[in-house]
Write a structure and sequence with these properties.
8-stranded mixed sheet, 4 domains, Ribosomal Protein S5, domain 2, Helicase, Ruva Protein, domain 3, 561 residues, 14 strands, 6-stranded mixed sheet
């Protein structure tokens, strides 16, 4: 009897057990649209203020990419209309090549659809999520479809569609379709009604548009705020950015899994030809050297390489000196245009820009560019203003998680005349811009708000900061010297009349001679304006701060290595 009671109590505790077959019936595939429908925060829609910025950013990114690929100087109109009750209509219109009718539903209403995922060249978009995610957010918050108009040429029809996403199938649904009038010869216009809030500030749409104009000096932006204020950010150059070309991966940094996948997919018949044909910057001689250092035969068949062989091959690549990756796949802004863009939007007294040589992480080429503006409206007690970019797109959120932030706080800014507390941004009237141009920027999330902490990227950013910092230090040093000289000069000018009077009295000179002595002293002082340093009139108080800049940077570089 006791045994039966125990068995019944066990059943009570366990309940009705379910078989694996019953559990399997509940399992099903989840579409990417359904996943992001529940996890929209991953795409940058975690609050209403940020959602407004994300929608604008994704639409503008698409417009700029389309114009640049078609080699058209971009003119982008951005309009935000306040419809009340925390609802806004976002309208973005461009003068790009337009989109053919068949592609419109897939581009705007299907997640993970695009041409750039497998492309090894620089571009703003990567995954084919951005603009379709903005449509998904609009659909979730207001229930209204996206309204898209596109025209591909002067004599072509303008197609208008109202689109939704079928989240279960991750497929577009066309609610309305017709031919309409479109004033421009070509271009695309998208309207989205979303739930959002509008606020000014460093993380606002206003800040985004201004920062985008700085690093896209070839583009014109016409921006109308929800308060009906219009701002025009005119282009400062008629020259389009260099068109990036697709390239093969660079051997440095290629990981085991990627290399194994490449070996299985290659059409090359030997290991030497695989290294030569499937990688950039590897000639027959370099390929043979890699094989020798890996202890592998050059005529081995790629598909027959084992796990141990791949390990040896990676070691051989690391031990071989290979030319830096080709910059052809990248389109950096360049020092001249970095400075021009900064001058256009930031009022300052000194500007400097640096564009580094290409480097590589995980076999992916990248270029770090840095510019700064010193002086202007900012106070010396304020923290420096940091602007972060990846492929000409501003990164306005997650600053503390970004590789650029780690790099800037790890640089000794005291050497360049700025105040800095340990582990924090420096203080001073400075705006610093850091731009990463890469085939595949390593973002920390799908929202593309911060760069991952790859040691190669952090090192390059620090080197760029040090280089532009030396220019700043030289300017600040010179400015302080001139200030010190001005103090000495004013002191001397104050006593010139007294000196000339005393000399005239000692030498029994006339009033006219006394005036001549005064004029001669003034002329002599003016003759050497700005040249007191050449005459040996130094200012040790200000020299000491800058005396060891070179030594400090050498130590920092060694630590980075």
């Amino acid at each position: 009897m006791a045994g039966k009671k125990t068995e019944r109590s066990k059943k009570k505790r366990v309940g009705n057990m379910k078989t694996a077959e019953e559990l399997a019936k509940k399992q099903k595939e989840v579409s990417v649209a359904e996943f992001f429908e529940r996890n929209r925060h991953l795409l940058g829609f975690d609050n209403k203020r940020k959602a407004l910025l994300t929608v604008v950013k994704e639409a503008v990114d698409n417009s700029l990419d389309a114009c640049e690929e078609a080699r058209i100087l971009p003119e982008v109109k951005i309009e935000i209309i306040d419809m009340g009750n925390e609802r806004f209509r976002v309208i973005v219109e461009d003068n790009g090549p337009g989109i053919i009718k068949q592609q419109m539903p897939k581009i705007f209403a299907k997640l993970l659809y695009g041409s750039k995922f497998f492309s090894r060249k620089q571009g703003r978009g990567q995954q084919g999520i951005g603009i379709s995610a903005a449509l998904l957010y609009a659909q979730l918050t207001t229930g209204r479809p996206a309204k898209v108009t596109s025209k591909t040429g002067p004599n072509k029809e303008a197609n208008y569609m109202e689109l939704r996403i079928n989240t279960e199938k991750n497929a577009p649904e066309i609610l309305k379709e017709e031919v309409v009038e479109f004033k421009k010869d070509r271009g695309t216009k998208i309207e989205l009604d979303i739930e959002a809030t509008y606020q000014k500030g460093d993380q606002s749409v206003d800040a985004y548009v201004k920062q985008t104009a700085i690093v896209n000096p070839h583009a014109t932006f016409i921006y109308t705020t929800p308060k009906a204020e219009q701002f025009v950010f005119a282009r400062v150059t008629e020259e389009l950015p260099k068109e990036p070309q697709e390239v093969k991966p660079h051997p440095y940094g290629v990981e085991h899994g990627i290399l194994t996948k490449m070996l299985k997919a290659t059409e090359s018949r030997t290991l030497q030809s695989f290294l030569t044909n499937d990688f950039s910057r590897v000639g027959p001689g370099t390929a043979k050297e890699i094989c020798d250092k890996a202890g592998l035969l050059t005529n081995m068949k790629p598909e027959e390489l084992t796990h141990a062989h791949v390990d040896k091959l990676i070691q051989g690549i690391r031990e071989t000196k290979i030319i830096a990756p080709s910059p052809d796949c990248l389109s950096p802004i360049g020092e001249e245009l970095m400075e021009k863009g900064l001058r256009k939007e930031i009022n300052a007294e000194f500007y400097a820009a640096v564009s580094r040589s290409p480097s590589v992480y995980r076999g992916i080429p990248f270029v770090v560019e840095c510019s700064l503006a010193y002086g202007g409206e900012q106070s010396a007690e304020e923290t420096v203003r940091l602007m972060r970019y990846a492929n000409r797109v501003p990164l306005l959120y997650q600053q503390g998680s970004c590789a650029t932030f780690k790099s800037i706080i790890g640089t000794n800014w005291r050497s360049y005349g700025l105040q800095q507390s340990t582990g924090s941004l420096p203080q001073g009237p400075v705006t610093i811009i850091i731009h990463l141009a890469s085939v595949w920027p390593p973002f920390t999330s799908e929202a593309k708000e911060a760069l991952a902490h790859y040691p190669e990227i952090i090192k390059e950013i620090k080197l760029a900061l040090q280089e532009v910092g030396r220019k700043l230090g030289s300017y600040v040093n010179k400015k302080r010297r001139l200030f010190a000289e001005q103090k000495k000069r004013s002191f001397i000018e104050k006593y010139i009349p007294h000196v000339s009077e005393a000399l005239a009295e000692l030498l029994k000179l006339s009033k006219n001679d006394q005036e001549k002595i005064k004029e001669n002293l003034k002329e002599l002082l003016e003759k050497y304006r700005g040249k007191l340093e050449e005459l040996g009139v130094d200012n040790p108080e200000y020299d000491e701060e800058f005396a060891n800049i070179g030594k400090v940077e050498e130590v920092q570089d060694e630590q980075s290595d």
